[in-house]
């Protein structure tokens, strides 16, 4: 059964952040808030956890398009090819924020990203995932939680999310109601920003 941790951005308790990090270190899968929607994620370097995440999504591990969640831009060089100075300035202008930026991947991506030529990078403007990544020491991954409702595309109520995913994940972080608008996806692989999906972020 998933454990619910109530961690609010106004006063995120360090011991609860540590608890979430320990679960990730042990190969767990967690649901956590962002500046857009609630998402499911795990440690990017734990292949078994990544396989479990893919199974929850009902896809094969080699078909996933999980975004990488960073707490700042310092991890870029670990996962992406060198970028132009102008592109880096563009990223700094819009991050942290409600964007997923598609960049060219390098060969250092973890095993679970084998064959990926591009990768989505996120730096959410939300203290909870930022602290988790900072404490863990490296990025986590993110995939959306879709709702079964015909009107709402994404699940916003953490208690209902916890009920639905109770036997599938290890922790649900309750930070209050989430948004129902996902991040704006921007492709930067050509050097010029191309909006692939308009979401919450506005360029």
UniProtKB/TrEMBL annotation:
InterPro entries documented for this protein: DHBP_synth_RibB-like_a/b_dom, Sua5-like_dom, SUA5_domain
Pfam families named in the record: Sua5_yciO_yrdC
Lineage, uppermost ranks: Bacteria, Pseudomonadati, Bacteroidota, Flavobacteriia, Flavobacteriales
Protein name: Threonylcarbamoyl-AMP synthase
Domain YrdC-like: 14-201
Source organism of this protein record: Epilithonimonas hispanica
Signal sequence segment: none
Gene3D superfamilies, alphabetized: DHBP synthase (3.90.870.10)
GO molecular function: double-stranded RNA binding
